[in-house]
Amino acid sequence: MKKESIFNTLGFSPSAEKIYLALLEKGGKTLSEISKITGLYRPAVYRHLPELLQANLISPIKRGRRTLYTAESPHLLSVLAKERAVNLEAALPSYMNLFLNRTKAPKFTVYQGKAGIKSVYEYIVSTAKKEEVIYRYESPRDYTVAKEYYPEIYYQRAGRNGDIDKYVITNEITDISRAKRLNRASKSIPKSYDSFDYNITQLISADKVVFIDFDTETAILIEAPRFAEFQRKLFQLFFRKL
Which of 5, 131, 173, 191 has the most beta carbons within 10 angstroms of its beta carbon? Predict the structure, then answer.
């Protein structure tokens, strides 16, 4: 495996390295002389000299009407390496923030059909911790039809004897018709305000939010703790006001 040049590691071009090494060996030279001893065309020398000048690896010297360029001590390469290491350490936290924020980006999944809705219910319930609370907005036209989409695990964990608690905001008809349960706290939207029968349900768990449209049998799952916390706070505020 070919050993990587220190110049390449520090971000210099191969041509800049060639110019510096030629001047280090030969001493001060003009542009024409640099072109001749390196084999680089003069435009290339013009293009790469600024790399070395900016890094203070070479210096211009006036000799009458001529300008010579001479190489400075190679120990400056070590200084440059240390400076770049310090700059990297200073910049690293901001790079890490970008990376962490990227990993926090919400994940969206769409489920279709009755089987898809059952799958998203199963995912929400099966990943919930014991005694976790699931918050639910529901606007069914007929809540008994919505129950047909529940998988078996929903009844096991969120049913009457389950280990998951539920807070529900629903319409008046559903709230009145449905049996009361110890693990379900329910309040209703006043019918005088709205019938609230859009046939749409929203579920909020610890780190997930789900929207289910029963008319089109479509469910949209958003996996993002911040989204879930945002929706949960709104639910809790609204629930207290009802």
Answer: 173
Q: Helix count (H) and strand count (E) of the chain? A: 10, 9
Residue 137, beta-bridge partner list: 169, 202
Burial group, residue 212, by CB count within 10 angstroms (0-12, 13-18, 19+): buried
Q: What is the CATH number of the domain that holds 49?
A: 1.10.10.10
Domain extent, residue 44, equals 6-95
119-149 burial, b if ≥16 CB within 10 A, otherwise e?
A: bbbbbbbeebeeeebbbbbbbbeebeebeeb
What pLDDT sits at residue 111? 95
User: Which tokens go with 216?
Assistant: 């089109």
Q: How many structural domains are present in the chain?
A: 2
Q: Which of 236, 230, 188, 185 is nearest to 209 (CA)?
A: 230
